[in-house]
Q: What sequence folds into this?
């Protein structure tokens, strides 16, 4: 039965199948080591091994797409489950049905990218910020004032924050944080973010994107403008990893593969030859990204796709 050791790691014994011989299993001691982001296995419990013993095998948690029942893959073996990676499936055998389910749940939770919940103060509805005149006058000294640029894109009203300042000189960061209405995934105003300089920004912010080849998930800064969608390693970069021209985007919608890929708040951007899978940090962000991208698609089609796409420089790197 897997258990949690004093370091907070899930550990326990199980059998792993020889990669070169189906049906041949070896007894190993497994550890879900979150500190090194790996699923490691040893010849025995490290406490019973010489000090400094290294694991005999390791599976990076970032490469694990799912841990699932392997009854159909190994019908003659009981309590088997498969740990799937882009390269291959690792077949493991637990000591019982309860152990098998526990290992699968622990591995799926460990390999799943956590989506941090918005702080309650940052997740306030924008409508709640609209107070009556009396309240506004009494609050002006301590609240942040946000300026927005309002545009109609394909019949959809898009409000983009363009400036943030405070009338208070107190420098109380905690109070300012509570009053902020900027999305937590893009805490700075667009005109202060290097990645958005010189762009007619419709929406920007951090999301998590699946790679094209390795299928791993990485945090990227996305910028949607009238030319297309660009993503950067960080909001401090000026050159994008890649830009997807508006004319190449055929659709954008919430992805039906969220449960299969073990990703919350997942949407997909469909292009000719590829579908980009992107995970947001909240359901509200998911809805907003799909709405803005879909509106931009409609606007581009209405203009006949002639919105200066030839000026876009694309940096191809399928590993990001």
A:
């Amino acid at each position: 039965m897997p258990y949690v050791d004093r370091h907070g790691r899930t550990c326990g014994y199980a059998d792993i199948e020889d990669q070169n011989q189906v049906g041949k299993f070896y007894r190993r001691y497994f550890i879900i080591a979150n500190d090194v982001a790996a699923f490691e296995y040893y010849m025995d419990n490290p406490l019973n091994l010489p000090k400094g013993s290294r694991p005999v095998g390791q599976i990076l948690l970032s490469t694990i797409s799912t841990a699932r029942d392997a009854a159909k893959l190994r019908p003659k073996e009981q309590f088997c489950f498969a740990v799937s990676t882009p390269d291959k499936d690792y077949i493991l055998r637990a000591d019982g049905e309860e152990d098998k389910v526990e290992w699968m749940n622990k591995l799926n939770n460990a390999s799943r990218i956590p989506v941090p919940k918005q702080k309650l103060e940052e997740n306030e509805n924008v409508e709640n910020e609209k107070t009556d005149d009396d309240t506004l006058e009494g609050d002006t000294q301590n609240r942040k004032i946000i300026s927005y640029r309002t545009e109609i894109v394909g019949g959809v009203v898009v409000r983009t924050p363009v400036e943030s300042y405070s009338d208070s000189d107190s420098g109380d960061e905690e109070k300012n944080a509570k009053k902020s209405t900027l999305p937590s995934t893009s805490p700075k105003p667009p005109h202060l973010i290097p990645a958005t300089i010189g762009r007619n920004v419709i929406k920007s912010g951090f999301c998590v994107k699946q790679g094209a080849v390795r299928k791993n998930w990485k945090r990227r800064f996305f910028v949607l403008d009238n030319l297309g969608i660009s993503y950067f390693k960080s909001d401090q970069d000026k050159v994008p990893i890649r830009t997807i021209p508006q004319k190449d985007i055929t659709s954008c919608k919430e992805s039906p593969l969220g449960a299969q890929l073990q990703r919350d708040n997942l949407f997909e951007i469909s292009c000719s030859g590829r579908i980009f899978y992107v995970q947001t940090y909240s359901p509200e962000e998911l809805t907003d990204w799909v709405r803005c991208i879909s509106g931009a698609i409609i606007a581009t089609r209405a203009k006949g796709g002639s919105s200066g796409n030839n000026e876009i420089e694309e940096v191809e790197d399928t590993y990001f």
Notes: The two ends are 38 Å apart (CA to CA). DSSP finds four helices and 17 strands in the chain.
